[in-house]
Write a structure and sequence with these properties.
The structure is a single chain. By secondary structure, the chain is an alpha/beta fold. The chain has one domain (8-254): NAD(P)-binding Rossmann-like Domain (Rossmann fold, 3-Layer(aba) Sandwich). Helix content is 34%, strand content 15%. It has eight helices and seven strands. The protein has helices at residues 17-26, 53-56, 79-100, 123-128, 151-170, 194-197, 201-213, 237-243; strands at 8-12, 31-36, 45-47, 65-68, 104-110, 174-180, 220-225. A seven-stranded parallel beta sheet has the order 3-2-1-4-5-6-7, with helices on both faces. α1 links the parallel β1 (8-12) and β2 (31-36). The model has no long low-confidence stretch (mean pLDDT 95).
Length: 256
């Protein structure tokens, strides 16, 4: 029905690359708002630090879904920064969502939750581009595989996934965790590892859109999100079977 009310979607870290791509690609499909450190043009914005629970609470009032993108995203970021932004900040986002009666939080996790596998074969060969040493097949890492985080950043994303599980088990909140591959401003792979783990902007936007639209009875799940890359070791079948995710791009399209 044309007169249906749009979902009210709050995006944390909305001025970042993925947040900007969301609004650009999806346009006015949703009623957007932002929790951000600076104002955004044409988007209602609450300016606050996610490390301050009291300051961020107003952003969550009347919201249906939160897309939590705000984080320190450097693998080698210092512990104090990761603690404040990725642990305390993520807890504050979930807690503010719970208090406000938000229906779902979509948590931007990361492939860094399993990227510690890069020190072992055959994954090391895949991310280094030594394809002749891999053969025709290799083990796929799924949402049920044991986490193997890379750096404290990866550890913080595993924490976020487990924290999401806690909130789902102790409140009416739904949580979907997206283990996002490498998304770049140029929107193309630029290093050997990207041929395995690249995710185009329109593919991550598609997956977030499908997560927003997912039925209410999907209370909790974890999905890998990359493009359809020839040399990937991260499973996309789970995302396809549960959410209907079909990546539109592949790293191989950018081979010279």
């Amino acid at each position: 029905m044309e007169n249906q009310t749009k979902q009210r979607v709050l995006v944390t870290g909305a001025s970042g690359l993925i947040g900007s791509a969301l609004r650009q690609i999806l346009g006015d499909k949703y009623e957007w708002s932002a929790l951000n450190r600076r104002d955004l043009p044409d988007v209602p914005t609450v300016r606050a630090d996610i490390g301050d629970l009291e300051a961020i609470r107003p952003a969550f009032e009347g919201i249906d879904t939160v897309v939590h993108l705000a984080a320190v995203a450097k693998v080698d970021a210092p512990w104090d920064s990761i603690l404040q932004n990725n642990l305390v900040g993520t807890y504050n986002v979930f807690e503010a969502a719970r208090q406000a009666g938000v229906k779902r939080v979509i948590f931007a996790s990361s492939g860094a939750t399993v990227a510690g596998l890069h020190i072992e074969e055959p994954f090391k060969a895949l991310v280094e581009g030594r394809y002749s040493e891999v053969g025709g097949s290799w083990p796929m890492v799924t949402h049920e595989s044991m986490p193997r985080p890379m750096g404290l950043y990866g550890v913080s994303k595993v924490f976020g996934e487990v924290l999401a599980r806690h909130f789902v088990d102790t409140s009416p909140l739904s949580a979907i965790c997206l283990r996002i591959g490498w998304v770049g401003e140029a929107d193309r792979p630029s290093s050997p590892a990207h041929w395995a783990n690249w995710c185009s902007q329109r593919d991550i936007v598609q997956m977030i859109d499908r997560s927003i639209q997912a039925p209410a009875n999907l209370r909790y799940d974890i999905f890998f999100v990359t493009s359809n890359n020839r040399w990937s070791y991260r499973d996309l079948e789970h995302a396809r079977s549960v959410l209907g995710y079909v990546p539109q791009d592949t790293a191989e399209d950018h081979r010279q």
